[in-house]
Amino acid sequence: MKLPTQADVARLAGVSRATVSYVVNDQAGGQIPISEETRQRVLAAVAELGYVPDSRAQALRSGSTKTIGLIIPDIQNPHFWEMAAGVEQEASKIGYHILLSSISPKSRDAEDVFENLSYRRIDGLIMVPSFIYQSQKAQKTLADLLRQRIPIVGMMSNLSQINLDIDRVVSDYRDATLEIMTHLLDLQHRRIGFIYGIAVPNLGEDRLSAYRESLQSANLRVDPELIASCGPTMEDSYQATLRLLQLPDRPTALLVINDLLAVGALRAISDRNLRVPHDISLFGYDDIPLAQYMVPRLSTTRLTSPNCRASSALSLRSLSTISIATALPTARVRRWVPPAPGIMPRLISGWPNLAVSDATIMSHAMASSQPPPRHHPLTAAIIGLAMAVS
Amino acid sequence: MKLPTQADVARLAGVSRATVSYVVNDQAGGQIPISEETRQRVLAAVAELGYVPDSRAQALRSGSTKTIGLIIPDIQNPHFWEMAAGVEQEASKIGYHILLSSISPKSRDAEDVFENLSYRRIDGLIMVPSFIYQSQKAQKTLADLLRQRIPIVGMMSNLSQINLDIDRVVSDYRDATLEIMTHLLDLQHRRIGFIYGIAVPNLGEDRLSAYRESLQSANLRVDPELIASCGPTMEDSYQATLRLLQLPDRPTALLVINDLLAVGALRAISDRNLRVPHDISLFGYDDIPLAQYMVPRLSTTRLTSPNCRASSALSLRSLSTISIATALPTARVRRWVPPAPGIMPRLISGWPNLAVSDATIMSHAMASSQPPPRHHPLTAAIIGLAMAVS
DNA sequence: TTGTAGGCGTTATCAT
DNA sequence: ATGATAACGCCTACAA
Predict the structure, then answer these.
(1) CA A382 to the chain's CA centroid
(2) For residue A265, which of A108, A241, B176, B354 is within the disulfide window of CB 3.0 to 4.6 Å?
(3) Taking a C-beta distance cutoff of 8 angstroms, is the pair A187, A316 a contact?
């Protein structure tokens, strides 16, 4: 069955197509006056025919597709899905739809997926790091998008990912890591392991380098044996943890690069008949919802946070299990701009002092000191989206 | 910067717009012959200008947006994420994009989200149950979509969700549940609890009714106290499990409606200082990836499956923890149609004997015996998508 | 082998 | 206050 078109409505209501357009778009309120009688006639015709504007034609005509592309790595990490869910919800609030793409590092056509997405005339793009962006072709695609002045926001903590000059939302776990390490070293831990399970080279450097520096400041040797590099899946961290636990002088504490992998580590510890926190301490990052339901609890929030439940049960050797909440507050915020009306000012839930209103807030967060000129209003909104869930 | 258009390419190459269209669409192979020389000139112009066809215009002209809508409930259940990831991957393989929408039962504008999605001239729709579909407005939207002959596939096990006549992919946990119950009753379990945590009324009836029937067949009373209805979050099942464990005559085994909630239950059991499987048996459904990393393992696969690790460690009172894998093989398949070439025949991974090739396979899976007339080729593909991850 | 022309459903700019 | 008309960028008969 063919859908009714604007022309059908116009015919039925006995008006022109333009009038129909005015009425359905409610332009009548401001500029173009439409008599109430005509308005009602049009509305009646719309209802009778079940007319809905064709968003394809709208997109073609208006230039805007009301669509934001979202690219996430397809790894099984709830953290990314939380991001996706958050982005979708926020986008929906401002009338945008999400065009979802996942990119698996394995799939050979990942570049094409990326390229395809860019051809769909999306109004904006949010992406999460993946090594695919380092490829020639991906770089070119990104450059194309930038040339079109499409707002792009990366949710990534690592500058080496992309050479291009795009806005980013950066979570920095450095301070949190320093805090953990100080604590552990105070508790006389001397063998601290690090499960470095990454999908992208250099990802999570913030945690690893802070780990190294802490040891060095304490005049302790950074034992390469204790840094277990592995892949990004639970199985990877499970195996890596098993390896660490088999060392002659096994670690008494373990930092794991994110909560998902911490789950794998927990399982490995249990399979070795060790207990957390009695025999070994365990730390994760992200505070995924699951964390507090693990046994033992991979609990939540920052070390110094008042509601850090775990820290109340400290023993000399162990700090129980802690999952560091997403370190949004420690992200480097270059410039504070008070919320501009109309551009999606919103509070980051849980951090009432931090609001997002303008692209400049996070522009070049970690790179240069002056924000690049970027005036597309959607950029602010997209950064808001990205930040709201980062 | 304005993007180059077909006309720009035509001008640069010194040909007409039609020729450009032929070349970029590779129609030359079949019908319309283009001289190799012209072809190269056009291609060169395309490359020089960085021309890409405008998918908005393509959509308007061709009628197809190459887009499939996906609606999932926004609850924090990895099971749905897995679905979304699977759908996205499969869609991408056949050149489709996913327009993602999540619908939270709480949000008041959920209906609008649904409606919005339907206006975007999507080529198909995949949706997961949510009570929102029961509303008047949602029903109307669905009816509109059906009137447009848009292929719609529901991934839902419950017929009462929607009164409309749409294709569904049905997972039926009934047999699996009967199997578990038989086993537990054989092991002399007499107090078996059921954590019925649902987001939608009547969801998961298959499990609950099989649970009831099993008890009745064994001449046991169905104790309403042992059926804990609650919400769909881990916290809900955590609380519900605590309640069950406080009963004077507490259950010795627990069925939980899905793995996510089983995690919450596991935590509650641990908080009551009980151990699985020594003190209580625990069962979940879905086999989410996380399941096998839980301590103790919420292990995997069907009871009778050869690789059911847990069943080898049976004790009298307990069957360890078992997560029933998605019950695809027990879904009611009305009619088997051998794979039709070109319509995305594919094997369901892990179940080599079950392939998806035609809408008729799952049509009216649980309702009537004759499939409805539904000839849109995309339906088959979409059912394939949906089934591949259900 | 290539070019011409019409139309997809909107919106915006002019007239009326 | 409303109507005609011209784009938007592309595809596809059909004509040359």
Answers:
(1) 11
(2) A241
(3) yes
Find residue A36's DSSP bridge partners. Answer: none
**Which of these ranges, A27-36, A51-60, A91-100, has the smallest mean pLDDT?**
A27-36
Token pair 């990393």 is at which residue?
Answer: B293
- Residues contacting residue B196 through CB under 8 Å, at least 6 positions apart: B204, B208, B227, B228, B229, B230, B257
Alpha-helical runs (H) found in B246-362: 259-271, 359-362
H-state helical runs in B14-77: 17-24, 36-49, 55-62
Spatial CA neighbour of A242 closest among A219, A279, A269: A269
Structure tokens given for A204: 């999570």
Integer Cα distance of B5 and A150 in angstroms: 17
Residue pLDDT, tens place only, A168-182: 665 667 767 887 788
Footprint of strand C on the protein (CB under 7 A): A 3, 5-7, 17-18, 21, 24-25, 27, 51-54, 57-58, 60-62; B 14-19, 22, 32-35, 37-39, 57, 60-61
- The model's pTM is 0.78
Chains A and B: how many Cβ contacts under 8 Å? Answer: 136
Region B311-336 average pLDDT: 29
Cis peptide before A373 (omega within 30 of 0): no
Closest-approach nucleotide to residue A6, Cα vs C1': C9
- Rounded to whole angstroms, the Cα distance separating B321 from B184 reads 12
Which protein residue has its CA closest to C1' of C9? A57
Q: Is the dihedral of CA B116, B117, B123, B126 positive or negative?
A: negative
pLDDT in tens, B262-296: 899 999 998 999 887 778 888 887 667 787 788 77
Chain A residues touching residue B263 (CB < 8 angstroms):
290, 293
Q: Name the strand (E) or helix (H) holding B194.
A: strand B192-197
Q: 3-state class of A324 per DSSP?
A: strand
- Report yes or no: A116 at the B interface, CB cutoff 8 Å: yes
Alpha helices, DSSP H only, in chain A? 6-13, 17-24, 36-49, 55-62, 78-93, 110-119, 136-147, 174-186, 205-217, 234-245, 259-271, 359-362, 377-389
State both tokens at A377.
């209003």
DSSP of A328-389: GGGS------PPPTTS--EEETTEEEEEE--HHHHTTSSS-SSPPP---HHHHHHHHHHHHH
Range name among A120-134, A262-276, A332-346 with the lowest pLDDT average = A332-346
Enclosing H/E stretch for B281: strand B281-286
Q: Is B100 helix (H, G, I), strand (E, B) or coil?
A: strand
With vertex at residue A307, the alpha carbon angle to CA A303 and CA A309, rounded to the nearest 5 degrees, is: 75
Q: Count of residues for chain B?
A: 390
HSE-CB at A20 with a 13 A cutoff on CA atoms is: 22
Q: What pLDDT is stored for residue A246 in this prediction? A: 96
Q: Phi, psi (5° rounding) for residue B143?
A: -60, -40
Q: How far apart are CA A276 and CA A216, in angstroms?
A: 26
H helix runs in A163-233, sequence order: 174-186, 205-217
- Is B74 an 8 Å CB contact of chain A? yes
Question: CA B40 → CA A269, B27, B184, B208, B360, distances in Å?
Answer: 62, 14, 71, 65, 45
Structure tokens at A241: 């943890």
Residue B348 has pLDDT above 50, yes or no: no
Question: Helices A234-245 and A259-271: crossing angle, nearest 10°?
Answer: 50
